[in-house]
Design a protein that fits this description.
The chain is built from one helix and no strands.
Length: 50
């Protein structure tokens, strides 16, 4: 068994800004379930209000 030599921990925006990917995933999910939003209508900080 190989020993773990390193762990990469990325707080969003440090190495990769993943927010655009999250936004695209939410828009795809919502569209699949009949909810069509323009990208500017989706505020990920308020996702619980959808």
């Amino acid at each position: 068994m190989a020993m773990i030599k390193a762990i990469i921990f990325d707080m969003d925006g440090t190495l990769v800004d993943s927010i655009p990917f999250h936004k695209d995933a939410w828009l795809h999910f919502l569209k699949k379930h009949g909810i069509i939003l323009a990208p500017e209508e989706l505020d990920l900080n308020q996702i619980n209000n959808l």
